[in-house]
């Protein structure tokens, strides 16, 4: 009995430190790959985006987006991403508005659309802002979700101004490593899982239909395993 009790005690810290994480099975019926033919140019340069051996490469220049050919309403999406330099900045736009996309396309200049942004930010960005003398309490590097020019009620915890849903846990890996995002967007509600655990999101999104966009914002980044399943 004493030996059994000792074994239980020694195993408890391991269990607490290594929780079981749930990853969505994107091989389930209905999921499909998002490939090059599913995307089209908005305001990026010709060489901003390139597909190589199933991996989408982004140079980060200019600040711009690439959008899906079609609009989506209710869906589940899986994407893996890896920043290639410290302080990298990018994002996934959910329900980007057609009007903002048309404006960017017509202008052909750097800029980002309106919609719900799922932040893709390297931890080194915090040090970069600090070094420049800026404040670092208004953003996070583990999966913020926030509205850009549209409506959304963020889930807590919130940024100081209440505009962003800050992640409940810090699970993102740094540049050079791969991160796994699972995004679920249903009936005006967006939820984000980072590396297997739900961390942030928001509800009351308006509009709740539009394009999906991948963001180029100044630093090279890789995307892979882009998968989507449309829902009723």
Describe the structure.
The protein is mainly beta and 232 residues long. The chain has helices at 2-17, 98-107, 124-131, and strands spanning 32-33, 39-41, 49-52, 55-58, 64-68, 75-83, 89-96, 115-121, 145-148, 151-154, 179-186, 189-194, 197-206, 211-216, 221-230. The protein is built from three helices and 15 strands. The strands form two sheets. Strands 1, 3, 4, 6, 10, 11, 12, 13 and 15 form a nine-stranded antiparallel sheet that branches. The protein has a six-stranded antiparallel sheet with strand order 2-5-14-7-8-9, with helices on one face. The protein is globular. 40% of the residues are buried.
Topology:
Elements: H1 2-17, E1 32-33, E2 39-41, E3 49-52, E4 55-58, E5 64-68, E6 75-83, E7 89-96, H2 98-107, E8 115-121, H3 124-131, E9 145-148, E10 151-154, E11 179-186, E12 189-194, E13 197-206, E14 211-216, E15 221-230
Antiparallel strand pairs: 1-15, 2-5, 3-4, 4-15, 5-14, 6-11, 6-15, 7-8, 7-14, 8-9, 10-13, 11-12, 12-13
Q: Provide a count of the helices.
A: 3
> How many β-strand stretches?
15
Approximate helicity band: 10-25%
What composes the largest sheet?
9 strands, antiparallel
Question: Summarize this, please?
Answer:
It is built from three helices and 15 strands. It is mainly beta and 232 residues long.
């Amino acid at each position: 009995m004493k030996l059994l009790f000792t074994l239980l005690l020694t195993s408890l810290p391991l269990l607490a430190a290594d929780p079981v994480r749930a990853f969505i099975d994107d091989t389930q019926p209905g999921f499909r790959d998002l490939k090059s033919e599913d995307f089209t140019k908005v305001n990026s340069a010709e060489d901003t985006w390139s597909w190589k051996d199933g991996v989408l490469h982004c140079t980060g220049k200019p600040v711009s987006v690439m959008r899906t050919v079609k609009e989506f309403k209710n869906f589940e999406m899986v994407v893996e991403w890896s920043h290639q330099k410290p302080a990298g900045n990018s994002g996934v736009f959910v329900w980007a508005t057609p009007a903002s996309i048309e404006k960017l396309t017509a202008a052909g200049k750097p800029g980002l659309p309106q919609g719900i942004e799922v932040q893709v930010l390297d931890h080194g960005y915090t040090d970069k802002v600090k070094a420049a003398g800026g404040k670092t309490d208004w953003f996070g590097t583990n999966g913020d979700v926030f509205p850009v020019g549209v409506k959304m009620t963020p889930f807590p915890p919130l940024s100081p101004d209440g505009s962003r849903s800050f992640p409940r846990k810090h699970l993102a890996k740094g540049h050079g490593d791969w991160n796994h995002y699972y995004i679920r967007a249903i009936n005006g509600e967006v939820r984000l899982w980072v590396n297997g655990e739900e961390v942030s999101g928001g509800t009351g999104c308006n509009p709740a239909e539009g394009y999906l966009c991948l963001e180029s914002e100044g630093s090279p980044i890789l995307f892979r395993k882009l998968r989507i399943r449309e829902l009723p």
